Amino acid sequence: MGLNVYLSGEIHTDWREQIIEGAQGLDVTFTGPVTDHGASDDCGVTILGAESDKYWHDHKGAMVNAIRTRKGIADADVVVVRFGEKYKQWNAAFDAGYAAALGKSLVILQQPEHDHALKEVDAAALAMARTPEQVVQILRYVLTGALPG
């Protein structure tokens, strides 16, 4: 049994790389959003034309990015959503809700200071992890039945 895992959420740390590296040897395919912040912000206007109003600039980018996000979440067996310390990740909360609505297995990765704010998101998840290593351990257990040594 292999897993398709979509890695959603904050883009300011290397948590994705930690999970991908830790999962080496497991039958896992990872996908995720474009993590180049500039490309993600400007894809709509670069492809579809400039906008003088920042709202429409951002809106075009969000729509183009949503094509990738919807496909990645729809094809995923497991969706991991990371809520980081920096900035508010409204997009991550949306991705978590979308994944939950599609009945996807949802793993939330968050710090203790977000526990209260994310209580409804956590309630929709099958697991809430504190570290990327815990996510890897969940994936390893799901695929092999092996507990951490």
Automatic annotation (TrEMBL):
Source organism superkingdom: Bacteria
InterPro entries for this protein: YtoQ_family_protein (IPR019884)
Protein name (record): YtoQ family protein
Organism: Pseudoponticoccus marisrubri
Taxonomic classification: Bacteria, Pseudomonadati, Pseudomonadota, Alphaproteobacteria, Rhodobacterales
